UniProtKB/TrEMBL annotation:
Listed PANTHER family: CALPAIN, CALPAIN-5
One GO-annotated biological process of the protein: proteolysis
InterPro entries named in the record: Calpain_cysteine_protease (IPR022684), Papain-like_cys_pep_sf (IPR038765), Peptidase_C2_calpain_cat (IPR001300)
One Pfam match: Peptidase_C2
Protease as UniProt keyword: yes
Residue ranges constituting the Calpain catalytic domain according to the UniProt record: 19-105
Family: Belongs to the peptidase C2 family.
Active site: H24, N49
Keywords of this entry: Hydrolase, Protease, Thiol protease
Entry protein name: Calpain catalytic domain-containing protein
Amino acid sequence: MAASAGSTSASVDALEKLGLVGNHSYGLLGCVEITDSFGDQVKLYQLRNPWGDFEWKGDWGDDSDCWTDESKRVAGWTDADDGTFFMCQEDLIKYFSRIQLCRINDNYKYAFFKARHKLGSFALIRFQINAPGGHHYLSINQTDERCFDRSVDYDYSNVRLIVAKIEDADTEQKHLVYKNGKMGQDRDTWEEYENLEPGDYYMFVEYDWPDNVQHTEFSVSCYGESQSIFLRDEKSLYNKDELVRELMASCAEQELAEGKTTNFAEQGAPDITKYFAMTEEGYGYVHIVNHEIEARYRENINYTKFEKLQIQ
């Protein structure tokens, strides 16, 4: 477990006066509940500055008056300049902008793939999950901001992820089955799957790079019960608009996104169904399925506001 403090130059200066280092990661060692001098229960978190010194100076720091002999004994307090200190939950939430957990399973397998895509483009990473499948994590990882000089105006870009299973993987006309989608604007965007079946999959990755982008490299990874293999970027096999339409159609017909489904049985056309939804990854769709032999469906859609919308 790790925690990061500070995200702006202003907060960095303020944090240093409190004994914290801005834009810096701390190890989160543990949590203990103690009774303070007023008889109240307090949750304390033990953190460590990897530098081995420069510690928190606020409440429940090494020299804080909050401590009693009994609370020191329960928490395992030591007065050592070793970078380790305690904070209460309220201060942890106030001064730390991110907390990360790294889940490790000795029996899990890890695989990753480095890729890139230009401004306005996308990537379509093909990978395989070997039998028997099972519990897995899929993630997209941008280059850490700490890899760049502080003078560089670098920020994490918004990304859309769609995972689809490839049916009939060995044929020319592949059928894609939408699994799920996600959007994020952080170093790591990830999704957990309780049971990822064996087979071939695509990870559709689309970054909203800024106009002045210079660094467009990212990585995708898989960590889980079965061995996974990343093969290649197959975006050259697809037209983006047609690909997204196929994925959204699959999502709609499985009714995976929270939206509205309308059947026209009352109008005498039970084999016409309309699906409307906004997906978690930021795409919206109006999908019509018409299995009627004679009936046709027609609808006029009026947009009162079209700012930042694109029709695909």
